[in-house]
User: Which sequence fits this backbone?
């Protein structure tokens, strides 16, 4: 059975519940806790919301948080679609809590606080968001997850959230696993425009969008998708960088190197030790600038490669 999403009127006890839970978390993490914030709809006065407290936790080191949080009753849920975020939930007791943990300086912190503060300070946007949520939750089909990490209810809020972030002036550089409809559409467009139109053929590898060994990421500047990357996971802690691209009007601003660096850090966290690629001659200076060296590609599937490509790699 599909779990129905509940949206209830604002409860004036929500900030008090956050304060109580926040103090427990601060005490459990001690000096590792840099900041703790009440975010999401329960942090916006008079806004209807799911009766779950969303908490954003900023820590010095994410490696030492799981055990103390488990002792408080939290269960780890992984990253979902946001690299470098650790998600935890607390269920079975009131209040229900979703805990979002980031390292210091992560742009997702600013994103969440700007969205919350904009709704707090703009009643017309707050009311618009309430109307949207009540409309979404009224459709039975939007309570379901259809080939996605998220329900139609959550996906349906994406355009509004981006509009608010634009109005709030968010310009941070964020990386996401493809999840929303427009992210998958951007992935298709980047692949076709910058790679397969040059052949020209229709992209023959869209099947990788639904394969567990293939990772597809988009790179945001604010709410605009400006880049895309495709990785294939290999045995023996190796991965292949199949595609990385920044939209042409935004090149030569070090955005490609920043995106690649984020990808490398994230893959290293996932125990990937060697990242390899087959570079065109035109892209070779980019890889060299980012400390890649010539290294045999050794594709375990032995796919045929372009004779002009240069095999490169990097130990992460």
Assistant:
């Amino acid at each position: 059975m599909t779990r129905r999403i509940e949206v209830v009127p604002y409860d004036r006890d929500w900030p008090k519940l956050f304060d109580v839970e926040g103090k427990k978390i601060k005490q459990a993490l001690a000096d590792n806790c840099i900041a703790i914030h009440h975010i999401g709809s329960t942090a916006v006065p008079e806004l209807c919301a799911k009766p779950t407290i969303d908490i954003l936790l900023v820590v010095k080191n994410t490696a030492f948080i799981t055990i103390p949080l488990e002792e408080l009753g939290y269960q780890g849920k992984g990253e979902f679609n946001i690299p470098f975020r650790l998600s935890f939930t607390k269920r079975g007791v009131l209040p229900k809590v979703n805990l979002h943990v980031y390292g210091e300086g992560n742009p997702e912190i600013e994103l969440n606080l700007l969205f919350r503060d904009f709704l707090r300070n703009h009643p017309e946007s707050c009311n618009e968001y309430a109307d949207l949520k009540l409309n979404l939750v009224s459709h039975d089909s939007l309570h379901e997850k259809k080939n996605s990490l998220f329900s139609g209810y959550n996906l349906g809020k994406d355009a509004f959230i981006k509009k608010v972030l634009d109005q709030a002036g968010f310009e941070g550089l964020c990386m996401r696993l493809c999840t929303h409809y427009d992210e998958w559409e951007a992935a298709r467009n980047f692949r076709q425009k910058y790679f397969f139109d040059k052949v020209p053929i229709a992209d023959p590898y869209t099947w990788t969008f639904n394969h567990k060994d293939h990772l597809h990421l988009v790179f945001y500047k604010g709410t605009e998708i400006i880049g895309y990357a495709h990785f294939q996971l290999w045995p023996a802690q190796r991965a292949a960088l199949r595609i990385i691209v920044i939209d042409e009007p935004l090149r030569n601003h070090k955005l490609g190197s920043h995106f690649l660096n984020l990808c490398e850090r994230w893959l290293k966290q996932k125990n990937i030790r060697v990242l390899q690629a087959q570079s065109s001659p035109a892209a070779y200076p980019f890889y060299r600038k980012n400390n890649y060296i010539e290294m045999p590609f050794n594709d375990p599937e032995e796919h045929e490669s372009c004779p002009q490509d240069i095999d490169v790699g990097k130990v992460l």
Notes: The mean pLDDT is 94. The chain is about 30% helix and 25% strand. The two ends are 44 Å apart (CA to CA). The chain has two domains: 14-168, 173-315.
